[in-house]
Amino acid sequence: MRKLRHELNSTGQVEYFLRVDDIERIELNPLLGKKISLSFNGEINCVACNRKIKKTFNNGYCFPCLQTLAECDLCIVKPELCHYDAGTCRDNKFAAEHCNIEHSIYLSLTSGPKVGITRTHQERSRWIDQGASQAIRLMTVARRKHAGMIEVKLAENLPDKTDWRKMLRGVTEDIDLRLLAEQSQNELDKVIAGLINENPNEYSYLEDAKRDLASPLSINYPVLEYPVKISSHNFDKQALVEGTLVGIKGQYLILDTGVLNMRKFAGYSTSFDY
Ligand SMILES: [Zn+2]
Hints:
By secondary structure, this protein is α+β, with helices and mostly antiparallel strands. Helices cover 24% and strands 28% of the residues. Helix 5 (144-154) crosses helix 8.
């Protein structure tokens, strides 16, 4: 298993699919309302090095990869702790391709409004992965570390986490994300001024950074029926997951028998029947 793949079509609907052995593509949206089953055969392989393992770390990695790969470093989830400038990055090539490139700071509506950051070129994909129903970019910066520094400060006044149960229940708060983005501009000004004051060499370019707010992007998920109560399937406890597929949102398959976090079980060998 790998995380769910998806595309946003021209009507704003997410189309989900699975890749089988990197070749075959199984469209999932047409399976809504139908019985599906996923059966874990007991074998787990690291998503990076393919080593056979008993348990995964960080959604699919073996322990050695967790400890050595740049994508498993703490600074990926806490980018404000980026240590590239100290010369201790685990992988300079990874940093050049994933971290020291344009990043967006955004507001999205998942279980409620939240602030987040991601690589600008894949922001839509990030918003879909987190199950956002709307998202708006606040600004872009030159590298992940800068985005992280700004996010940490904004998160003093805005949530930065998603309550995934609430997100999956489809509870939508009536929030004007564009208005919230406009209201956040003063705070953003203050945060940027603070960073420039601390380190003008590194941050003074942010003074001229463009901050044109576009309209929020609306994202519709293929969901027939949102669950009222959330129970989770877990391949570590039960090898067979089956039921009627009633929806897909974020990285979750929503079955009438419970939800399955596909990303959590990356690396698990399963057969898929429909
Ligand atoms: Zn590995």
